[in-house]
Amino acid sequence: MPVWSLTNPLRVLVTLLAVTGLAGLSLAAYAQQEPPKKPAAQPQKPPPKPRAPAATTAKPAPKEPAAPKVESLPPSQVGIGTLARHAFMVDPQTSTVLLFKDAETPMAPSSMSKMMTIFILFDELAAGRLKLDTRFRVSERARNMGGSRMFLELGSEATVEDLIRGIIILSGNDACVVVAEGLAGSEEAFAERMNKRGREIGMTKTVFKNSSGWPAEGQYTTARDLAVLAWRSIDDYPQYYKYYAETNWTYNNIRQDNRNRLLKLTPGTDGLKTGHTEEGGYGQATSAVRDGRRLILVVNGLASMAERAQETARLMEWGFRESTNTTVFRAGDMVVEAPVWLGAQDKVPLVIAKAVQITMPAGQTASPRVVARFDGPIAAPIVKGTRIGTAVVTLPDNRTVEYPLQAGADVARMGVFGRVSTMLQHYMFGWLS
Question: Which of 35, 239, 251, 360 has its CA 20 to 30 A from that of 44?
């Protein structure tokens, strides 16, 4: 199974949702229909003579349509085929891309762009500029928003915590406008802030035009960019990310379920956001954790809510089933000993600062090649934890990943006589070595 690595220097980059239902005839369309005509009066006929019941055989119950075979699905550039027009799956612990299908092709963000509105709220909370009980007033523009709503009342005030739940769980377009106006004065100004923040975290191919993802000319994103946003939300704000896992909420005496049905159906799912537009189809950003391993998936361009739920669940199960993570080094493991110049010890261990894991196809054994790079000998004194060099790990698919190396111990400087003796030996006899 081929894998790619994200090249974004930021942490890369939820599991998703789907709401099932039937679209009914609109009231306007219904009103335009002609009322049924009364049948013309017909002369009554004598009732037919009773007949013996004909022998009948029970009809078999209709079978559900079979799921499409994997080999018949539209192919991806990396990973298995999928019905989605755009798909991107990444293991953020190793930066390994497991699924890539037109993941950097522009697409309509729909309500998945609400993750950026929430991300900015998390920014403000973490910085102390907002509190969960801070209140924003509901404007007429917010109250009149169409689509999915929190059902805010004109002139009322909503707390930041209520607005977070209203956006994440209820996908409230009205709540998004309240946040935008409360933080930036207008949706237009808030969209500029969204774009600026997106560029800062590595969303290089995204343009927001409003806070809710409501269709607008010139608004677009990519599956990869949304995965970056999802991962930063998870990684930067674990104290607030918990709201993404809530399955339902009641506001203004109206109870609504989270549109992310995978929270209930797919084990380990703890976020993030669904979306739909006529242009972009049905999409979802999803994340799930199993046995300490997280995967992030973004899909878009599916045909229905049911297809979105089924395809997202299938892809997430595939990601966990067909790949696994292997630890090459634990945090603090020694990679090599480096020579020391004029130190009380002649060597210092160089250790990995953080655990090194790689993602492999399930059932395969990892055999990466590791090369330590540093300028040596290293002059004493040396303080434990000082960045000394880099460990270059070459993976089985020939990708290379670099990890910092640190001094694993303190090394004091030699005394005066020791330094003089060492230097004399070096200058007098170094040419012999």
Answer: 35
CATH for 412: 2.60.410.10
User: Is the residue at 11 inside a domain?
Assistant: no
Number of compact structural domains in the chain: 2
Q: Decide which of 308, 323, 338 is a domain's last residue.
A: 323
Q: Tell me if 327 sits within 8 A of 334, measured CB to CB.
A: no
Q: Is residue 22 included in any domain, yes or no?
A: no
Residue in the block written with tokens 């809530």: 246
Q: What is the pLDDT of residues 122-135, one digit of tens each?
A: 999 999 999 999 99
Residue 273 to residue 171: CA distance in whole angstroms: 8
Q: Is the pTM of this model over 0.85?
A: no
Give Cα separations from 39 to 36, 42, 44, 232, 268 (angstroms): 9, 8, 13, 66, 59
- Judge whether 120 lies within some domain: yes
CA distances from 2 to 228, 300, 320, 358, 395 (A): 21, 22, 15, 13, 12
- Is residue 164 classed as helix, strand or coil in its secondary structure? helix
Domain that holds residue 407: 330-432
Which carries the bigger pLDDT value, residue 32 or residue 216?
216
Task: Point out the residues that are catalytic.
Answer: 111, 114, 171
Token reading at 346: 């002649």
Q: Using the structure block, give the residue that is written with the tokens 């059932």.
A: 363
**Could you read off the pLDDT of 206-215 as tens digits, one per residue?**
999 999 999 9
